[in-house]
Task: structure prediction
Amino acid sequence: MKLKGKKIALMVDSEYQELEVWYPYYRLKEEGAEVVRVGPKAGATYPSKLGYPCGADAAAAEVKAGDFDAVIIPGGWAPDHMRRDETMIRFIQDCAKTGMVLAAICHGGWMLCCTDALKGRRATSFVAIRHDMINAGANWVDEECVVDGNVITSRKPDDLPAFCQAIIQALGG
Result:
């Protein structure tokens, strides 16, 4: 139980990539972390790209960044939906200001682009959003998992083992 006592926000919204939500959710719970699924509305159910449901435990407007040790932003098309909701953006911006672990995979980097977290940092993402990441100040690289300070990024579902291991290590596990 390497992460006992740690609390992690896992962002959810419509059209998320299944593995990028459920793999970290169960992997980090396995290590003893409390994983809270945060969406636009508490109790709402958000379908994945393939229709698999994921309920939100809490609403972004109702949680505080200071209550968490890390935030994970999965990919799929969910980040495109997330960045249309000011409460989701504000929560991620608040998380970025705390210096907590910010972990984004695939298109999840889009939400980091709404913050200053990428400025001057090495980072990766799904190749289709690399220019967005660069324009947000990142030194974009094509690597499985990139850790630069408190920012952890990966490209795609195949990178999930390295991504989750980096999150566990960053949280002291």
About this structure: The chain has a mean pLDDT of 97. Residues 21 and 165 are 15 Å apart (CA to CA). The helical segments are 18-30, 78-82, 86-98, 109-112, 130-135, 160-170. Residues 18-30 form the longest helix (13 residues).
